[in-house]
Structure formats: C-alpha cells, structure tokens
C-alpha cells in the first residue's frame, strides 16, 4: 500500500536544525489489531490480549514504510549528528502495553529516538516539549489537541 495522511494547514514556527517526526503507534506505525480488541472488549481485554501476544510482533501500520525510510536515512549519521529525530507518542501504557510495541520496533530494526507511553493522557503537553515538524495520528481528537498547542499534524485515516 501507499502511505497517506491528511495534513492540516497551520502556521507554525519550529526550529529547523533537525527534522522531528512524531508517530502514534496503533493504526499508524502498527496495525489497528489492539484498537479493535479495545473497542470490542475494553481496556482489560486489550491488556490481556497484549500480554498474550507479547512475543508476536504487531502487524504493519500505514506509515511503517515511511518510518523505515526515515530510519534508513538516520543510520547514515551518528545519533548525535543526525538531522532527523523520530518519536513514538502513544496512548498505550508503558507498563501493560508498551512491551510489545518496543519488541515490534526492534524486530523491524526501526530505531526510534524517544518513546512516550501516555497511558491515555493528552498528547498535547509532550508534543509541546518535542516541537515536532509533523505529528501523525489516527485520532482526530489527538490531531485537534496537537493543533491547539501549535503542532503541525496529519490525520492517518
């Protein structure tokens, strides 16, 4: 498939010394399998599913290929001098549901500079700290929250 996202128009002032790209996890980098379990069985069901599937890498999401291309470019530089910095900012909890996400990234060979497991908290405050050039998410409420704090955003349908 082809990676695609709807970029919302917004005027921003971000430093240009390093390209900073933020990805959501489920339904963006990863498949939406856990989101589907969450919708059907709630948080407890999703946590149980993630624990049962911990050793199995998650499926690919619509922006995995794009993230992999960024990763290949990053590898051409030392970590300190890389002009690209990537982040994972996900609603998952690090304790209960983050292990599989990290294992999946490792299985793919995709190095993410920083990962933030928000445990359902709003993403806006951490995005304000990161000051990304673009934030990709499948949740329109997260896109709206990012726009409210001046972060350029793209909705991944």
Characterize the structure shown.
It comes from Crypturellus undulatus. One of its GO terms (biological process) is adenosine metabolic process. It holds the Pfam family 5-nucleotidase. The chain has 157 residues and is an alpha/beta fold. It has one domain: 3-Layer(aba) Sandwich (Rossmann fold). Helix content is 37%, strand content 16%. It is built from 5 helices and 6 strands. The protein has a 6-stranded mixed β-sheet with strand order 1-6-5-2-3-4, sandwiched between helices. It is globular and about 40 Å long. The two termini are 13 Å apart.
Key phrases:
six-stranded mixed β-sheet; 157 residues; 5-nucleotidase; alpha/beta; Rossmann fold
Furnish the topology, listing elements before pairings.
Elements: E1 6-7, E2 19-23, H1 33-52, H2 64-74, E3 84-90, H3 98-108, E4 114-117, H4 124-130, E5 134-137, H5 140-148, E6 153-155
Organism: Crypturellus undulatus
GO biological process, one term: nucleotide metabolic process
Pfam families: 5-nucleotidase (PF06189)
Helix and strand succession? EEHHEHEHEHE
- Low-pLDDT sequence parts: none
The largest sheet is:
6 strands, mixed
- How are the strands of the largest sheet arranged? 1-6-5-2-3-4
| Amount of beta strand | 15-25%
Quote the CATH topology: Rossmann fold
Task: Write down the domain tally.
Answer: 1
Figure out the total of helices. Answer: 5
Q: Span from first to last CA?
A: 13 Å
CATH C-level name: Alpha Beta
Q: Please state the overall shape, judged from the principal axes of the Cα atoms.
A: globular
- Alpha-beta content class: alpha/beta
Q: What is the total tally of β strands?
A: 6
Cα-atom Rg, whole angstroms?
15 Å
CATH superfamily: HAD superfamily/HAD-like
CATH architecture: 3-Layer(aba) Sandwich
Mean pLDDT across all residues, rounded? 92
What percent of the residues sit in helical stretches (DSSP H or I)?
Answer: 25-40%
